[in-house]
Amino acid sequence: MTGFDVDDELFSYYRKKEIIKGFAQKPIRLENLVQEVSGQLHCYEMLNVGF
After folding, report:
1. pTM of this structure
2. What is the pLDDT of residue 49?
3. What is the distance between the alpha carbons of residues 42 and 40, in angstroms, rounded to a whole number?
4. CA nearest to 28, candidates 15, 37, 19, 17
5. Is 25 left (phi over 0), alpha (psi -120 to 50) or beta?
6. Dihedral, CA of residue 11, residue 16, residue 21 and residue 25, to nearest 10
7. Tens digits of residue pLDDT in 9-43
8. Exposure string for 35-44, b = 16+ CB within 10 A, e = fewer
9. With contact defined as beta carbons under 8 Å apart, do 6 and 29 qualify?
10. How far apart are the C-alpha atoms of 27 and 3, rounded to whole Å?
11. 1 touches 24 (CB < 8 A)
């Protein structure tokens, strides 16, 4: 999460390689943060089923 504009080349590279799965810029509503975190946890759980 950042309060700065995002236009960094490294950030773009990480997004393309899916190293960074999502991001949120401030200000962010609590509902949106909860939704993003929940979605990320769900993806993590799906990748690690059975471990």
Report:
1. 0.56
2. 77
3. 5
4. 37
5. beta
6. 40
7. 887 888 888 887 777 777 889 999 999 899 888 88
8. ebeeeeeeee
9. no
10. 7
11. yes
Q: What is the pLDDT of residue 4?
A: 61
pLDDT in the model for residue 24: 78
Please report, as a single letter, which amino acid is at residue 15.
R
| Amino acid making up residue 24 | A
Q: Helix, strand or coil for residue 27?
A: coil
Residue type, 5: D
Token pair of 34, please? 């909860």
- Of residues 17, 21, 26, the one with CA closest to residue 39: 21
Query: Which amino acid belongs to residue 9?
Result: E
Residue 12 structure tokens: 């773009």
Total number of residues shown for the chain? 51
